[in-house]
Amino acid sequence: MTLSMGVSGGISEETAGTGEVIFPEGFVWGTATASYQIEGAANEDGRGPSIWDTFSRTPGKVFAGHTGDVACDHYHRYRDDVAMMADLGVQAYRFSMAWPRIQPDGSGPVNPRGLDFYDRLVDELHGHGITPLVTLYHWDLPQALEDRGGWTSRETAERFAEYAAVAYGRLGDRIATWTTLNEPWCSSFLGYGAGVHAPGRTDPGAAFAAVHHLLLGHGLAVAELRAAGAAQVGITLNLAPISGDDPEAVAHIDGLQNRIFLDPVLRGEYPADVVERARRFTDWSFVRDGDLDIIGAPIDVLGVNYYSPTAVRLRAGQPANPVHPGSEGIAFVQGDEEKTAMGWSVKPSGLTELLTRVSRDYPGTPLIITENGAAFDDVLADGRVADERRIAFLDGHFRAAHAAIAAGADLRGYFVWSLMDNFEWAEGYAKRFGLVHVDYASQRRTPKDSALWYREVIRRNGLQA
Ligand SMILES: OC[C@@H]1[C@@H](O)[C@H](O)[C@@H](O)c2[nH]c(CCc3ccccc3)c[n+]21
Fold it and tell me: Which of 231, 201, 219, 115 is nearest to 160 (CA)?
């Protein structure tokens, strides 16, 4: 079953907020994880160091000095984790491959034991009837490449395409859907601009160069995957609806958050307003003739990660937000909506707004929600986690996704972030996004109430009244 399966079947009468909601026949329900966040075994079987191994060891960068050295020990526990997914009725599983397992130095020699792990994982998934969806890059760049400029260097884009070909060569016969990057916005603006993610650089000009080379890597990898016969290729972008009274402020942030990625990938061009505003930080000389044709090569599916909307307003004297270069005078504001443990506003209607906007402005590309979920302060008591807030969060967002489908969005599937609690980047293990609770001392997994609820949603292909 590939995710490009045409959806058929009627849409039940939309009843906002309550009432029965049934998704189209063939809609795919899944869960998502990422290599550095769950695998552990950081120094095992030939894996090389990544920028997150380096960053998490840099004092002050990650909560309490947490690292991904052990994480959920998924590298050793994957069989039980896959069996747990099957028990939860999960139909598809989005995971990422660790480039440093497959090419420890990011180029040249391939580490067969690294490929062997994903071989075993994919066979385990198929053995349980779970469809794999792979992300080739979910932030764990081999450190050796960062030592040579990382994503600010064109060479990294070229090495990424070679890595994609190596991964496809071993697993292309068993993985139908290949997404290249997870959230180039994070890799570039958090990693090279604000410095709050690996590699921890704080240089807006470097961030724009990283944007381009990440996108170029995507395009070069798509060409390799197509040449090798991949059934479905795509990319995952974290996107958000941007609201505010000042059109210029909204356009500025919408440009940096959304259009700087959507336009190249789906239209083969950078948005002119973003290019102009960025000239304070870069001369864009890293863009070469033909690059945008490579980046804009057609894809089969766009992964959308949505968590929370963004609201902005003008505020005199407001310093620039380091994540958004050039955002002087623009304040990021939050309404009085409920907040998650990350401090993010809970606004399901933002998902409907986002999906309908993408469908309207970038028609013709099927969408899948590759991440949506929430961290709450879960409590394990008597072998149970009564995470009612997560159930309410997901219920609301599933209804919002259904409303987008009813409005014409070509949405094919939904992957809840995350299968299990895991290493939440700069927050370490302090934030829990999982449908399944992980006790890191014992590595015991406990499906939360939300996991049991999700099992019923999947069985019903929708929500009860
Ligand atoms: O923060 C929850 C998840 C991460 O665990 C995933 O690895 C990552 O793909 C992901 N992206 C987002 C939205 C963008 C974002 C990420 C991290 C920090 C702030 C914003 C949320 N999440």
Answer: 219
178, β-bridge pairs: 134, 233
- Please determine, for the modelled complex, whether the ipTM score is greater than 0.95: yes
Distances (CA, A) of 321 to 124, 228, 424: 44, 42, 22
Q: Is 353 in the pocket of ligand 1 (CB under 6 A)?
A: no
pTM (2 decimals)?
0.97
Alpha-carbon Rg for the chain, nearest whole angstrom, is 21
For residue 371, indicate whether it is catalytic.
Answer: yes
Other beta carbons within 10 angstroms of residue 112's beta carbon come to 12
- At 55-108, the pLDDT tens digits run 999 999 999 999 999 999 999 999 999 999 999 999 999 999 999 999 999 999
Q: What is the distance between the alpha carbons of residues 406 and 78, in angstroms, rounded to a whole number?
A: 37
As a whole number of angstroms, the distance between CA 367 and CA 349 comes to 17
What does the alpha-carbon distance between residue 8 and residue 151 come to, in Å, rounded to a whole number? 41
3-state secondary structure at position 332: strand
Q: Please tell me the distance between residue 145's alpha carbon and the centre of ligand 1 in angstroms.
A: 23
By DSSP bridging, strand 242-243 and strand 232-238 are: unpaired
Catalytic residue among 269, 371, 424, 456: 371
Query: Which atom from ligand 1 is nearest to the alpha carbon of 342?
Result: 1
**From the CB of 310, is ligand 1 less than 6 Å away?**
no
Cα 417 to ligand 1 centroid, rounded to whole Å:
9
CB of 429 sitting under 6 A from ligand 1 = no
Could you tell me if the CB of 135 is within 6 A of ligand 1? no
